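Hi support team,

I'm opening this ticket because the web form for multi-chain structure prediction keeps timing out on my end. I have pasted the exact lines I submitted so you can reproduce it. The total is 508 residues across two entries, so I didn't expect it to be a heavy job. Is there a limit I'm missing, or should I split the entries? Thanks in advance, R.K.
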Amino acid sequence: MSPLTITGLRGVPFVKAGDDLGAITIAAYAETGLQPEDGDVLIVAQKIVSKAEDRIVNVSTVEPSEQAIALAAEVEKDARLVEVVLSESRRIVRHRPNLLIAEHRLGYVMANAGIDHSNVAPADGVDRVLLLPVDPDGSAEALRATLAKRSGRRIAVIISDSFGRPFRRGTVGIALGAAGLPAVIDWRGHPDLFGRTLEVTETGFADEIAAAASLVQGQADEATPIVLVRGLSWSAPDAPASELVRPAEHDLFR
Amino acid sequence: MSPLTITGLRGVPFVKAGDDLGAITIAAYAETGLQPEDGDVLIVAQKIVSKAEDRIVNVSTVEPSEQAIALAAEVEKDARLVEVVLSESRRIVRHRPNLLIAEHRLGYVMANAGIDHSNVAPADGVDRVLLLPVDPDGSAEALRATLAKRSGRRIAVIISDSFGRPFRRGTVGIALGAAGLPAVIDWRGHPDLFGRTLEVTETGFADEIAAAASLVQGQADEATPIVLVRGLSWSAPDAPASELVRPAEHDLFR
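Hello R.K., no limit was hit. The queue was backed up. Here is the completed structure from your submission:
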């Protein structure tokens, strides 16, 4: 079996609202000295997708509700930021000073509903924050289709973010959106080496790929927001990243 | 930046109690056509570490306690298996029919306290299960030291397992033990691209590496329980995988 390779694509510019991520990706392949190939998996950082989709909110224009003001006092955060978190969320899952864990409207349980203000350029001293894409699976599918059209190649796309976790310290890369691969692989019915049914029933395939890509994406350096994983194969049917979200009624920890 | 490569080492035999994992690893490098190099990271599946350490329990010899019998009825599992889970755990975190989530004595919150009976050879029709290593960080350090001595190379070692997760479907690879690298990297104080402090404060470095390796380890095929990741670099100080366990008093979900 040939090794998996994980390569940060070079030459990705600062992304602005309206930018064409398909064109940026094709150019980044060339800049890295590579050609798109069938079976490539591209992991694209959520931040550049959100920027291209103009998901920036100018916090100074936000009018916080009474609920946001009360919650902001409890968590010791800016009430306008808390208002934006509430507007993106179904509900608040846990909170304490300096920590606000929300169930995003798409089901992700995450700090601040995924709203981030690092690596967003300040504009005239105004604080701006970045929301998640409206439909990360849809964004992944749109980029997958664009790349298929322009390159003629079968390329899968994952839109990645970093999540904190219950029980364990440190964030890890996860898949917010996916297209062209199985975000979850169902192993039920597969025998183990001794013919017994495997105890692991499902693997978070796209989450593992996003975690692998995160090793190359880095944190402070936005120069590698697009990462190429080459050498993966799978036989399970495609499934979007929404399948990675455990339905609340099957979740013992929500 | 050269790409990361992730390679499943070839020729790893079925591991038995008392086997020398250092010798097995050195032979697997050779079988794969590779030489150990400084900076290599080896991810070793927990199962072969547990087997080498003879952490197999013959379930038929276990006498279940009254507590185990009562809990087994609730979760619809074998009372002797539940007794083994209880003996490895500090407490039961959640349970329902067919699901038993325990806090392992080392702090991991995981299904069945990590006790597994897939890929354990049945002996004379007797059901045998595999416990986690007694001290996974210690096992990683012992293997790291052995490899350093035999190869003269600086090689980091991760002992990996697959965990289910709250909120998300599918298991992902995680690090149970680590030596020679920072299992957690602390980014506090690092500026983002615009000089603002990063919002991500800690990354689960060893967990991301274990997730990446899991893409190559596979599920049913035990032929690649040792995976080599080459091309990683880091500047943070070494930290064992026990640092990945969030202390219960800082955990909002336990």
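A quick check on our side: Chain B has two domains: 5-55+132-246, 56-130. Let us know if the file doesn't open in your viewer.
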